[in-house]
Fold:
Amino acid sequence: MKRRDFLKTGFLAGAALTVLGKAMGLANNAMAAVTFVAAGKLGYKEAATELQLKAGKKCDTCSFYKVDAAGGAGAGQCTLPAMKSAMKSAGVPYVKAAGYCNMWKKKA
Structure:
């Protein structure tokens, strides 16, 4: 009888701790600060070069760029899946509107 009670209590405590850990992880992700892409990830630069500016290739003209006020003025989300995996972050990475990366794609 004692062994059964010990196992039951252990499983219940383990389940409760798992639920608590998941809830804390979700809250932590919701409260996390904005993560900007580091220079060099997929060739990302915070300021596009003159050649790229002439061609109109900046983050704010890319199809993967989404304006978001959380990043501040002149910044937005990069929804490119390769950028998200390169950053290894839980949230969507943010980029500067005047930036440029090697994966730029024209808006439709």
In short: The longest helix spans residues 2-31. The chain has three helices and three strands. The radius of gyration is 21 Å.
